[in-house]
Amino acid sequence: MRIVGLMSGTSADGIDAILCRVEGSPPALSVTVDAFRALPFPAELQARIHAAAAAGGADAEAICRLNAALGERFADAALAVIRDAGFSPAEVDLIGSHGQTLWHAVDPDGSVAATLQVGEPAVIAERTGITTIAGFRTRDVAAGGQGAPLVSTLDALLFRHPSAWRALQNIGGIGNVTLLPPLADPASRPLAFDTGPGNALIDELVRTISRGGEQLDTDGRRAARGSVDEAWLAELLADRWYATPPPRTTGRERFSPELARHLLLHGRNRGLDDDSIVATVTALTAGSIADAIRRFAPAPPAELVLSGGGARNPWLVARIAALLPGVRVLELAELGVRGEEKEALAFAVMAHETWHGRPWSRPAFTGVRHPVILGSIVPGNNHAALLRRTLREGAG
């Protein structure tokens, strides 16, 4: 099947769109990428998303209009990546859309009461004519799961090491890790969970310090110029959340722009220059990742495979490597998939599995009560023909 995957992460900086071919079924599933494109959001739209994702930041009408506007943006992204690959929409079978998370409602006991993603799939299906699958996280939460990390099933399908434990760490706005046993050890169970802040606090700090002139700490330059306040870092890592056992998830509702601004003020009150505040908060991301792996990994991993924007921050990567001596640190591209493609690819493969009625979420990954098929299917112009073809292939 030829499938588009669409993803917009916690940072709300834009849409990652991928067109790929997915064939077979687990464990013999094959994926080939035809095209990938990252489409940034205009500053005005990003500001609307951030406002809607803040407590008390938007009313029902604003969220309603944002849902429709993002549906248009996701549809445009799908059509753009299809054109990039030289195909027409009629030659594409499915779209799998993550949407844009506005809120992840986590109760004090760590359970997730609800999750909200916007980017109306009915608009995507109407504009493209392609059957669209969305609502993946909401179904996971309905089945008792954390709603994240959903990408871990892709990790387990594609990236297990033949003979050693491997950790796959994504560093987007929020960090999440998948701990995979080797293929030679079918009895051991994988594990996945959120590790804490990824780039969310760092990016917000830089935007605030530069008054919007910079959007991120490019190449970790600010952190490299600063000095880590180790005493303050220890206080930050003592937050009880980091000791919460998996399954667990988090988001901008905890590691928020408000928290970043509070950290900036607190750091300045400690006498730190701005670059040292960025260095200490970057060290928080590194420390939370290393602590999560040391604390919760079923077995010490031989490799740590990085993806997401944080993998392009050499200061952050070096700090993680120093905290995990003896662990080989590498980028996902060394396993054959570019890091920036991974999350969009996951939602394309997720759509494939949902269409074929196979579960995606597993208790070991998100804490669901049972393996569960994710998502809601919005028929496109191709729905009836695609259904007939799938039934013929199944009968054959």
Description:
- The structure is a single chain.
- With 396 residues, the protein is α/β, with parallel strands linked by helices.
- It folds into 2 domains: 2-148 and 344-395, 2-Layer Sandwich (Nucleotidyltransferase, domain 5), CATH 3.30.420.40; 152-339, 2-Layer Sandwich (Nucleotidyltransferase, domain 5).
- It contains 14 helices and 12 strands.
- Strands 1, 2, 3, 4, 5, 6 and 12 form a 7-stranded mixed sheet that branches.
- Helix 10 packs across helix 11.
- The protein is globular, with a radius of gyration of 20 Å.
- It starts with a strand and ends with a helix.
- The relative contact order is 0.17.
Could you give a short description of this structure?
This protein is 40% helix and 22% strand. The model has no long low-confidence stretch (mean pLDDT 95). By secondary structure, the protein is of the alpha/beta class.
- What would CATH call the class of the largest domain? Alpha Beta
Order of helices and strands: EEEHHEEHEHHEEEHHHHHEHEHHEH
Query: How many strands appear in the DSSP assignment?
Result: 12
Strand content: 15-25%
Any idea of the CATH topology of the largest domain?
Nucleotidyltransferase, domain 5
What is the total number of structural domains?
2
Span from first to last CA?
16 Å
How does the overall form come out from the CA principal axes?
A: globular
If you compute it from the alpha carbons, what radius of gyration comes out, rounded to the nearest whole angstrom?
20 Å
Largest beta-sheet details? 7 strands, mixed
- Judged by helices, strands and strand pairing, the structural class is alpha/beta
Low-confidence stretches: none
